[in-house]
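As described in the Methods, two query proteins were run sequentially through the folding procedure within a single session, without resetting any intermediate state between them. The first query and its resulting structure tokens are shown here.
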Amino acid sequence: MFRTKKDVDRYAQDVLRRVKNERERNMRCYNIAVQYYKVRDLESTRRYVCMYLAFKDDSASAHKLLGQALEGLKQKEKALAQYRRSVELESNQPELILKICELICDQDVHVDADKARYWCERAEDLFPHDPVVFRLKERLLTNGSTNHNANFSKEFEDLISSELKSRPVDVNVHVRQLKLYVDTGRTEAAYAHAQQIEAKKLFAHELQWYDYLTTLYKIYYDKNLPDVADCEFFVNWTMAIERYVMLCLAENQNSPPKSITECGNAIYRFDEVLHKAYAMLGKCKSYGQQSLSVKRSADFLEHMSAQLCLHLATFIFKKAKNEQGNWNEATRSAAPLLLFALVLAQPSEEQNMGGTPLKLSVAGEPLKAISNTVPQWTDAALHRHCQAGHVLISLANDQRQQYVDKVLHSCYKNWRERLFQKLFTFEETKNGLSMSHFVNHLMFSSPPRSDSSILRYLDDVIVQIPKQVGATASIQPGSLHHLVWLGVQGMRHAPPPPAATLPQRMPLPPHHFHTHHLFAALAIGDSSCHHTAASHDTVNRLDVDSFLYAAEYFDKKPSIGLQILKTQ
């Protein structure tokens, strides 16, 4: 009804100007409070609903509204009191009972254990395996024990087992199980469970999972040092922390975004882990097809090094965007990194990592970590090749030869040390140069290729767009954000369409941008397409195709994109 606080202010003044007495004035305050809450003016909401409750204290909806305003104002204990009062007045509010349990779970809210147990039981009757109920049960167990004794561990482990049966793909429960293992000194069990989950790829796009997984690997490493001689562990650790960095830098995640400092810390840790992995994997003994084994391990390490370069470049751009830094300086710093990301670990047919499994071993045990994941490397390499290549083409601005020469000229002397010290300025990394793979490895000491080779790679980026679409869909499944960007790059390099008018001879983007192989779960079309009402349940492949085509044409010729949307 109203869009801004000023609109509600005018509405409130108009309503209150016409009232005849104090009682009527206060009775009108509830509707005013509701409007203020809709525009998120929480203080005005609190003030007006309190005026209403002064005359009508038995209103369950008003107490609930006051609780919502107080919760938004971070007054959680006062909000809890209002929610409880609302449920006392109107017991048939199941969602509010769950909200009460959610507030009780907060560490800043202090509630008597018996009262907390009462609300937990009420919520469990309504929502038996809700995550909020699980968290409240955990808090009750934690507060009822001292120093995580044996009884607590047994009870909590039983609770987690019960939750896993009901919610086997809930990332929160699996993370909590890993934490319980670590808290009770069972680091090896935590590591084994984590590897089982990773093998199934249940949480490949869950930032929360990889956040704790990288912590677990560090704990495992510290506990077993210097006895850690397990090459497979270093492969797992490297892959997990690389995935964590990628998710940290992503801007379209469901999880709360990481700060610039957190992103920088994650990349710094990845750089350090890669330095350790290079040292350890170099000591691993191979057997059987020795030359292939050595090549495959070298492929893995080179691929991860290229991923590090891409993530460093992405971090530079993200930092410049979020902190409103100098964009020209950011592109100068990122360009050498993008070159290395482009030319290292090329996704060529000769380097088909989905072929013969790697047979790398320690003490006679075959290393399976790499051979179980190599099919993903080609997609990741194609995605990296795509990202780095298209950005470089855009930066070159039709002067590729001159631009490449300029970037290659900057890859000399101590450019890595200067970049490292500029990016990682927080306290714990001041002495980290000696443990940096990026700073110390010889592969970054000189330009990656000749200028003519790099120009050929840039040409390949455009040719390989059909493959890049599939790789992008694999790395970022269901992300229109990435597909639109890639489609725009393809349209920029496509030949100009023939003169034609819609819809008779409308030129379409290449067939590989069709969604038949990207969103296979969607229906092709909708028989009820003439209905005026629509919801997310009616979305089909034609809708997604239309959106992709319109977005791509808007970049090249807005009038065509607008016509596509109008036809839908």
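Immediately afterward, the second query was submitted; its sequence and tokens are:
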Amino acid sequence: MAAYGPAGPPPYRPAPVPAPVRRGRRFWAGIAAGVALGVFAAAGVIGVAVRFTASPEHRSPGAALAAAPSVRLHVALADAGGGMVDANLTVAESGYATGTLRDYGGGTAELRATAKATALRGDRLWWLNHAPGQVSVLTGRWIRPGQDAGVPVDVVAAFRPTALARLVDSVVAHSTVDPYSDLPRITAAAGGWRVQFDWRTGDVVTLSGPITDRGLRPAAYTGGGRVVTAENVGPGTVTPVDDTGGGSVAAAPEPGDDGDAAKAKKDADSVLPDPGKSGSGSAAAQPPEPPAQESQQPKEAAFETTINAAAVCSTPTCSFTATVHNTGDAPGSAVVVGGVTPVAPALGEQVVGPVSPGGSATTPPFSTANVAPPGGEIQVQYNAATFAVPVASAAGTPGTGSPGKGSPNKGKGSAGRGSSGTPGSGSPGDASGSPGSGSGSSGSGSSGSGSSGSGKADPGSGSGSGAPGSSASGGPAAGSAVPSTPADLKALYTNLVKRGLDLSKEPAFTKVEVPLQPAVASAMKSLLDAKVTPEVAKETLQYAVDKKLLGPLVTFAETGGLQNWDEIPKQYKNAAGEQIDKDWPKRIGITRQLEFAQDILKRDPDAKVIVDGQYKGCMADVFDLTRHEAYQLKSMPGRARNLRETTKESIKQLNGQNGRNSDGTIDCTPPGFSRISVVRIEQTSPLYSVDRDEVLKNLPRMKEYLCDGSTPKLELLRVINQLGTYEWNPGGFGDFGADC
């Protein structure tokens, strides 16, 4: 189903807002009192339900948004599959949008949108996370994204000022007070949505809720000491890009001005045809519509494998050959790992090809002794795991900025093309760039006795992006731990098959395009080397693909910088929500650890890191062994009052003050390492869009936690929100009243 375009979902139509109840001049002050009553109600002391209304003297919370020509938003998006994205967007009421996005797998993208279409231009990691079968054809190009490309909502329809205003007012009009609101900010809740606003001005601070095609209706107050919220029924709230719905939105909106609206239009007009213009004269000056994501299919070789042997062996030596047939439209080579069940899973391996389109090639015989008694016969199953590799001479050219060819794998395995990584761009919450590093290539397929499998190969018909440290031929970056030659790939795939991990049969592996498959295979080998079982390794890869977190796994493999692969399955399982609450805010902290370690390796590919592991008897969220730094990472999606407790907890962990964990480990910092506390304030917190002074106000009485007499307990405190990164070293602890 197409995600964007003229045939896309209709604009957001909120449920009608009933006429406000007029309560006079003291209404807004009454809200604060109402919150206090709500606290007692929650404790069972008094029965009350506080409802929101607007007085004649005060505007509704959505009024400032409704009157603005544009809105600036800082948004967290979670799609139905669990993929998470941070976005900085500007949306004009006139129907245009511009912005930048960063996913939790380290990818970045630019967005442009009109009321008719949306365009994305993502870097290599973005497409590795969101479309791993199309990385080389999508990287660095403007395209109209599919519904799984990281933007689960129609940005213009959902976030233009009047749409946001109607949504806000609908929630407020139908809601009850959250009795635990952070004064002077009040939180209204209804229908799964929460709107936080400043009761003194009515300005919206944050709003969050589900992406759904259902709406709101007023709460029914029944008395009896209960606070009753609304139900989800009726027309749309925030409209998904398809009719399945699912996912979440958390946003911090701010009214924009005419300049913001003009920039949104200018940016959109540079990429997309303007739906407001018509006629041949104006159309001629407009840019062509970017291609649809699904239309980008490369020429490639496609291998089908045939076993040349009977299923019964009655001779002293059991042998077979395998023939690979190139059914595609480009040349390619293949690694074939032959085996016999139940005798030997991997008898040997051969590289055949290059094979021209329509051509075939047959391996030399794979042979093993017959284990049946002399003169007897045995029922066998001959196997050929086929992994395709690119033709070495079909390489991209460096530094042109044009991506190499690539395509979705379609479940059959695919093989290499000339692509390379692109430099990472600045993005919400992180200014680091990714080290562009193309990888080698492989495809996959398998065949049993009498059956056939397939693999795909592509000749590398595009040009590389010329990213720093990348290989324009589509192979791994200089110094990469990922093998690239046919001989090395043959050894890698054979090693995995012999150890019980035949990736040619794994759907998650065949979804990854060929230039990146060797990096994935290398990651799987690292897991096996760390004593992870083949089944758990396959599960980890499936989580990485499904949850759009393949980027960290590939970065760890390409740099060789991760030192504790044994912990990675647990991290991915937690990030997928399998062992913790599936609600996405509670998974953020786990995902941030993977993202943070990846960022270290992107900045310094020679660094060595440990993620959520031990070093010299101490546990930390991340160790940078190269710079001798220990990090405790905290994600704070909740109330302002939690900032102090969250920060205190991280400092205590870095100083070994929390005792032993349930598994016997202890959070602490090894001798000679710097102690660094990083607290990231997420979109759902009221502190997401506040300045340094406001952050300080919410960190009172910190002296005893920052200092032990005249000795600092911390080398660096870093607090991150939408407005910036605020840092304090011991020389700046005076801001907290500490002198050490």
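The two ends are 61 Å apart (CA to CA). We note this only descriptively and draw no conclusion about the first query from it.
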